[in-house]
Amino acid sequence: MADKTTSTPDLRHVKEAICIDTNRVYDSCADKDCITDLRVYLTDRGQCILENSSSVRPRSAQILNCVVEVEKVPFNRGCYSVDLTFFVKVTLDAFNCPTAPPSTIEGLVTFGKKCILYGSEGNVKIFSSSYVCDGADDQNPIGNTNPQAKVQCVDPIILDATICRICDCCNTMGSCCNGVPRNICRCFEGSFDCDCGEKAIKVTLGIFTIVQLERDVQMLIPAYDFCIPTKECCCDTEDPCDTFRKISFPVDEFFPPNLKGPDCAPPFDIGGSGACGCGCNK
Question: CA angle at residue 34 from 211 to 263, to 5 degrees?
């Protein structure tokens, strides 16, 4: 494919203006949230291990799903509230005694987030048809006029994990494990039981998210030409050693580079000469 990436397009090469159907981002926001005292819901297996443990250590967290709901904001035309419910799988090490190896337990953490974004207005009814193999070519259900919310996030960081009593691990942002969806339950071994045991785990999570409101629009854009690939398809299998020889030696992995710059403050002065002992320029 031709590489013509420039900061300012050359309109002299535009052949025509074409109309495309795409999603336009009307509003977006980025957040860095630290959520404290979230209860970890355990299965019967994990709860049995916790009852015999004296401390826990966090290992990792993984987002299993995020339920997104979009609703209009009353008396504020064009604005919508985006309600997010996260389902996070956390993995921890449970210690029975200092000399014994830890036991790994997995639990579920749920929390919610809400933001208000501008999504413009639309009153059209959207219909579309799609081909279904070995079936009738029926139309898809009608779509509402609310914009579509898109959530981008990375797996959270477990900042803290402690053992507490169940009565002390209540958080208004958490939900009871009796309402866990079945597709989430299939990610764990055993069954959830909120009423068993005397101990519980509460964690603090840090998470980064980007929320966008998009709406289906038709836009007029300039067209330069068709995208014709210029790279030839290669089906030859190279020798693995030949492929390895083409990889550059990872010097930075063995010798980490020094941080140089005017903002680097020397930790000490060698011999009173004013030279920076860390190799930075003064």
Answer: 90
Strands (E), 171-250: 199-223
Q: Residue 208 corresponds to which tokens in the numbers above?
A: 């980064």
Sequence-distant (≥ 6) Cβ neighbours of residue 125 within 8 angstroms: 142, 143, 145
DSSP state, residue 214: E
Under 8 Å between Cβ of 41 and 194? yes
Q: Quote the pTM value.
A: 0.70
* Inter-residue contact 173 to 84 (CB < 8 Å): no
Residue 203 CB partners (closer than 8 Å, separation 6+): 38, 40, 58, 90, 109, 158, 159, 160, 161, 162
What distances in angstroms separate CA 61 from CA 40, 46, 107, 157, 269, one per listed residue?
11, 16, 10, 6, 44
Interval 43-78: pLDDT, tens: 888 889 898 888 999 999 999 999 999 999 988 888
The whole-angstrom separation of Cα 114 and Cα 86 is: 11
Report the distance separating Cα 60 and Cα 89, nearest Å: 8
Q: Which of 11, 25, 5 is nearest to 222 (CA)?
A: 11
List the pLDDT tens digit at each of the 282 positions of the chain. Answer: 444 444 566 777 778 888 988 889 999 999 999 999 999 999 888 889 898 888 999 999 999 999 999 999 988 888 999 999 999 999 999 998 877 889 999 999 999 999 999 988 876 666 666 655 665 555 555 556 788 899 999 999 999 999 988 776 655 444 455 678 888 888 988 888 666 678 899 999 999 999 999 988 888 988 888 887 777 666 666 677 877 777 788 888 777 777 665 555 555 444 444 445 444 444
* Alpha-carbon span 137 to 219, nearest angstrom: 28
CA–centroid distance for 46 within its chain: 26
